[in-house]
Amino acid sequence: MKKEAIKKILVRGPNWLGDAVMCEPALRGLRGLFPDAQVTLLVKPAVADLFVGHPAVTRLLTYDIKGRHAGFSGKWALAKQLRRQGFDLAVLFQNAFEAAFLTFLARVPCRYGYATDGRSVLLSDPVAVPDPRMLLHQVRYYWDLLKPLGLMGDPPVPELVVLPEEEQAMVGRCAQGGLTPTDIVVGINPGSTYGDAKRWLPERFAEVTEQLCRTIHTSPGQQVSVVIFGAKGEEHLGQEIAARLSSRSLVLSGATTIRELMAAVKRCSLLLTNDTGPMHIASAFKVPVVAVFGPTDWRTTSPFGGAHAIVREPVDCAPCLLRECPIDHRCMTRVTVDQVYEAATKQIAGLSGSSGLSSSSGSTQIHKINQTNQTNLLDGITVFLDRDGTLNYDPGYLKIAADLKLLAGVGPALARLKKVGAKLVVVTNQSGVGRGILTLKDLEAIHARLQGLLEQEDVALDAIYFCPHHPDDGCRCRKPNVGMVERAVSELQLDFRRFYLIGDHARDIQLAHRVGAKSVLLTPALADAQSLERLKAEKAMPDAMAKSMAEAVDWILEDAKTRPR
């Protein structure tokens, strides 16, 4: 397509509130690609409310699937309406067959979207779906759809717009509930329209909030207040939690429009929540979030950006993506009040302004965190990590997720790298899949546990790449071949000139040489002369050797100080 010929663009947005927020960076990216075009966003009514006044959108059209657009006749009427608009390009962020069919009926000449749901024949420009094993965050999934159109770089954090008059109206509504403009507001979103499986226990939400309200320091004239959010049908949930609180609370469950919800969430100093749409709204307004995850995949739908905390228990059956738990709901019941409280105190302590934490009776005082003292020594640097024998004990072929155990000191050492800006990417040979020893589902569960255990140490891996092939397959991805690193460079937009690699095998060091990375070989004891000769013969001499991950990180941090930025 010729970009200069594109004057009117139709965008079919996602149907769910959270998905729509995660799509927002791509919507801004589209506006950047076509700055002079009219952009019309076609979405369901609730999602349309989300984008009122948004600078990337010229016009909003609502898709009323339960009303005037119900059935085939309703869709035909909508297609005729769209045809009259004379759109040059349709961008389909919604993956359904119906989205492509509507734009086909509307005779939009350029129909652009992922080749999902058997709709490739209806798209003039189908885009290959990313490998599902990559577990892209949904923000990146939408952003990457536009890369063939010329969109570059990484997606920004989602942003939403609330009008000044809407903020003032919410101030007045809060005042009617006893909240003042100077209050420190803790928001709670204990429900989920997706299903009960995503809900943490309401009494635990109440207990965490009660502890927080007792320990948050306030200035003279300030108070800590609680606002409880929820959809229609969740009013009882909000009232149940409010009844357990001693702090002033305002229950807005089932009592807000989307625009009012946005204004109220923006007013919060912190949001405690399940994996829901309001979680993403809070993230878009830069409200610190503590989110409890259970059956859904935190790797793809967590709040996007760095100022948030995920609390979860790495059970073998999660993420299952089920609406109702068929067993004992262990992914949620094992998340404790103490875990969520600890995450919340860290979030509150990182806030600017007068709101910090004071000590409660008999407890140790928690001081505010001065985030400005953190350096960005490893900004733009990627550290590639082997898995077995480097991050976790290597029992041979690891087949059961519960058997994965981190090596001593791995979590704290990697946390030091993340704290100074490094990206952490695992590259691991897993020929057990090709040999039939374990399945891809087994491997996914193992990696879910690995990420979960590291998250408990405040370490978020940026990606895990694995080679599932048999050594005899001659694939390009098996280390020391460079396929996994090349893929990471392409998908994560990495700088080839700024790599480190930590591994425990000669093939890891050989891979480092091939991609120009500085390397650290983990070895439990000092290498003797014979071992050094063998490494030289295998062309696997590392830049450094270390007995532990902590020593390897020490070396990287020292080396980075002298490395050109």
Low-confidence stretches: 352-374
Task: Give the neighbour order of strands across the main sheet.
Answer: 3-2-1-4-5-6
What is the strand tally? 20
CATH superfamily of the largest domain: Glycogen Phosphorylase B
Q: What is the residue-averaged pLDDT?
A: 88
Overall geometry: globular
Beta-strand content estimate = 15-25%
Largest sheet geometry: 6 strands, parallel
- Can you tell me the CATH architecture of the largest domain? 3-Layer(aba) Sandwich
Number of discrete helical segments: 20
What are the SSEs and their pairings?
Blueprint: E1 8-12, H1 17-33, E2 38-43, H2 45-50, E3 59-62, H3 71-85, E4 89-92, H4 97-105, E5 110-114, E6 125-127, H5 138-145, H6 164-176, E7 184-189, H7 202-215, E8 216-217, E9 224-228, H8 235-243, E10 248-251, H9 258-266, E11 270-274, H10 277-284, E12 289-292, H11 298-301, E13 308-311, H12 330-333, H13 337-349, E14 356-357, E15 382-385, H14 410-419, E16 423-429, H15 431-434, H16 440-455, E17 463-467, H17 483-492, E18 499-503, H18 506-515, E19 518-522, H19 529-537, E20 544-546, H20 549-561
Parallel strand pairs: 1-2, 1-4, 2-3, 4-5, 5-6, 7-9, 7-11, 9-10, 11-12, 12-13, 15-16, 15-18, 16-17, 18-19, 19-20
Antiparallel strand pairs: 8-14
Helix pairs in contact: 1-5, 1-10, 3-4, 6-9, 7-8, 7-13, 14-20
